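[worker-b] picked up task from shared queue
[worker-b] task type: protein-ligand structure
[worker-b] ligand name resolved to flavin-adenine dinucleotide; SMILES cross-checked against name lookup, match
[worker-b] sequence length check passed
[worker-b] input payload:
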Amino acid sequence: MLTVIWLSAVLIGAVALAYVNASGRVVTAALAAALIVAWGAHAVPGWLALILTVVFVLLAIPLNVPALRRALISDAVLGIFRKVMPPMSQTERDAIEAGTVWWDGDLFSGRPDWQRLLGIPPAKLTDDEQRFLDNDVEELCAMVTDWETTNVYRDVPPDVWQFIKDRGFLGMTIAKEYGGLGFSAYAHSQVMTKLSTHSGTVSVTVMVPNSLGPGELLAHYGTDEQKRHYLPRLAKGLEIPCFALTSPVAGSDAASIPDYGIVCWGEHDGRRVLGLRVTWDKRYITLGPVATLLGLAFRAFDPDHLVGEREDIGITCALIPTTHPGVLIGRRHMPLNAVFQNGPNSGKDVFIPMDWVIGGQPMLGRGWRMLMECLAAGRGISLPASATGMAKLAVRAVGGYARVRQQFNTPIGRFEGIEEARARMGGNLYMMDATRVLTATAIDLAQKPAVISGITKLHLTERGRAVITDGMDVVGGKGICMGPSNFLGAAYMQLPVMLTVEGANILTRSLIVFGQGAIRCHPYVLKEIEATREADREKASIAFDAALFAHLRFTISNFARTFVMGITGAHFVRVPAGVAPEARRYYQQLTRFSAAFALLADLAMGTLGGTLKRKEKLSARLGDILSLMYLCSATLKRYEDEGRQHGDAPLMHWAIWDAMFKAQNAFEGVISNFPNRLVAAVMGAAAFPLGRPYVVPPDRLGQRVARILIEPSPCRDRLTSAMYMSRSPDDPVAQIERALAAAVAAEPAEHKLRAAVKSGRLDAKEDPEAGIDVLVTRAQAAGVITPAEAQAIVATHELTAKVIRVDDFAQDLGASEMRIGSAAASAPTAPSVRHKAAA
Ligand SMILES: Cc1cc2nc3c(=O)[nH]c(=O)nc-3n(C[C@H](O)[C@H](O)[C@H](O)COP(=O)(O)OP(=O)(O)OC[C@H]3O[C@@H](n4cnc5c(N)ncnc54)[C@H](O)[C@@H]3O)c2cc1C
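[worker-b] inference finished, payload out:
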């Protein structure tokens, strides 16, 4: 009996010490104390006590004496690591080392510090930024319609281009000292979001100069002279920039671009100068066809050793005026019917002076590093904002449409099937917006969160696509027939562009999120890798030993924590004081998932090693878990930052519940497909000892979310905040808003009317040809409704008729009517609104 008690105490003590990640010395002292008790109290038979003591001494001495530990264990493991570690190319190293680790590091640690996250002040706009959004962005939106831009001008109209330049839209991220607007990442994100709720083409046109490209590269790496010359010109739109990396043979694998520049002497401005003879062939380059300044990435070679020892210097970025002899700007691509400028360009043996390399000669060969560092931040702003903007448009307009469009005498929004789609739309949008804002906040805190920006781009564009696809299903034929009154079809067509650019989504999910995260965010893996590369053997041995044993303790601790939290349902996990009580359990469950994820990641890396890189499906699912935990963190922070809005609670609950369920499925996907079944069994038993905690979000919760979308309310306004709301009578979203308000106001009267028909007091079949106004007049005469109610019903029907109308065209689909300057510059059924609005 005493033996059982002693063994149980040792086991519980060991789990407790592992749970708190106790140091090696504390564990040694605790085990020594347990052995003293075993001997003193005769808790175990003498022979067993002796064996345990010998084992303890044999392990404790080498493990607690660093020099011995290194000689006996760590150096041998280091030797194996050195042999099996695949060599890392400079481009891989640059990609992995770029950027910083932020909240992703907490999620990888198994112990996220929620207090730290919640303590970050909410994002805020300055007065100038708010004014710009309220005035300049509003004005810009009022000047364009997506239909006219796409089908009449096939470009941003000239006066709108000028407005964009004059108001500084192209220099939002350029510092004020260079004439730019010097906006924060959050303000930049707000502007892009709002523009994307109205016009995809304008949004992309503004996006590119503010994203990864000449402006940003110059700001970080340009010489003083380059900055002084170009930044003010870019800020004022005197230069239109583009950035050309992609070539026909190198898309996702951009580091393998075949474009090259040979270091040589040449003639420039009548002088003999050192420079490069560059040959390139690029495609898909946004703003390329209208650019005046071409940012170009190519691989530099120095066969004559004019600048140093190396022949293959590496990827280099230069700025070339497009008027430079030899620069060939190609024709235009047509990206999914969107008309932002995009096309190929090329050049053969074009001589450029060394001054045109961004950062000058010292930055030769540093291009990949520059691109990776800028991408680490930039990827988290523009595309996530655009996807969120489009999702806002879909949620607001589709919600309103579902309320006013009736089938079977019922608003379609009341059918459960439509409700289910709207629940997904609302929940996804709440989480997308939260994530967009949190990532922009991180960038404003001077972070360059490489993994987080990849997660944000990947998941917000994917969710944006999901929201819009759901929206298309809800609106049926209205979304399919294109024309000025189709408010969703263009977004549906254009959204895939976002999935492809700045790291195509399948690649990002399969290779980047976990691949980069496992090395960057894990507390010890990068340290271990760095130790294997250290040339000084003594230094390498010390560094590797420290990282290896900390890593082992970390894994054991996460094992204990995962299991304990699994069997207790994480009910005892500490949560920061004062968090919303209704969200408390999510913090606990996320801490549990974080520990389980850290354990799975370690077991996967430990057993699969380098082959994990090729197991893309496992890597993608591990990345999904990390991503979904990040999205949940952002959602919880949003809920707190916005003062725990009671009306938003269903959105928060639905979004987190759905994401946790998906994260659980991703765990399941890793465990059930893990090649080593023994390790898989250990993973499963540790992570879910009592089964899976999450099921799909309940239907009743989905119903509460769906209702938010079809009723005007502060909650609906918050969900779709930063959305451009046109005041034009022809704007299809504005028409929906008016019809929705009217439908809500007329609803009691509609009820009375329906009840009268049902009870036989009114005969709706008396004159089946007659319109609603006749029925309403009879209802009014019969005293069923008041004159004001009659008017409200008629007005609702008129407004609804406008909303459900779709455009039609002449036999040639209106081609002859859609010419700039023609009397009917737009489709026959909807007059041009651009000039009216601008006037
Ligand atoms: C509208 C538009 C605008 C663009 N603007 C610019 C610009 O301004 N400047 C610029 O330089 N480039 C630009 N691009 C190029 C863009 O960045 C590339 O399209 C992108 O890098 C993908 O390359 P790709 O289209 O050749 O696809 P591919 O590289 O052929 O990829 C095809 C598919 O394979 C997947 N894939 C590839 N490798 C892997 C892997 N290892 N594991 C799993 N899946 C993988 C990808 O995810 C993708 O789904 C633009 C492209 C478009 C369409």
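[worker-b] attaching auto-annotations
[worker-b] The first strand starts at residue 241 and ends at 244.
[worker-b] releasing lock
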